[in-house]
Amino acid sequence: MGSVMSNTYQNQQRCLDKVSELKTKTQELYPDLDMPYVPVSFNLRGQTAGMVRYRKGEIKDLRLNLDILNNPNHTDDFIAQTVPHEWAHVIQRVKYGHRDGYGRRIKPHGSEWKRIMRDLGVEVKRC
Fold it and tell me: Catalytic one among 21, 28, 86, 123?
């Protein structure tokens, strides 16, 4: 039981370290972007690996699925791909809002998100 808890903690810490790394890279890539504090939680359930939650148009938190993270077949890919995928959504919302200059909703995995993923050096794919 202790090793399961230890692995869980280590995996959560690896995710938080990845978010910290992504925050630093975001500041380097977009120095004029005023990034908010975004809490990270590990309380997402079901088949979804990660998501960014919004409340009244503002970023509430970044949620990650601990069960998927702790699956040894997915842990490394989760940290390398899922965490940056969700962080790119955070950047997208801060940088572009949720509507373009014509009032159209910005697509979650549209050109803006893809550009951010490339800027972060992450493969552009949906999980």
Answer: 86
Q: Which residue has the tokens 């940088």?
A: 95
Q: Is-contact 68 61, C-beta < 8 A?
A: no
Establish whether 58 is a catalytic residue: no
Tokens representing 74? 């997915």
E-strand stretches of the chain = 40-41, 50-55, 58-64
Write out the two tokens for 85: 């995928």
Q: What is the pLDDT of residue 110?
A: 94
| Angstrom distances, CA of residue 7 to CA of 62, 72, 110 | 21, 10, 35
Question: Could you read off the pLDDT of 9-62 as tens digits, one per residue?
Answer: 999 999 999 999 999 999 999 999 999 999 999 999 999 999 999 998 889 999
Separation CA 120–CA 109 (nearest Å): 15
Confidence band, pLDDT 50/70/90 cuts, at residue 102: confident
* Neighbouring-strand partners of residue 37: none
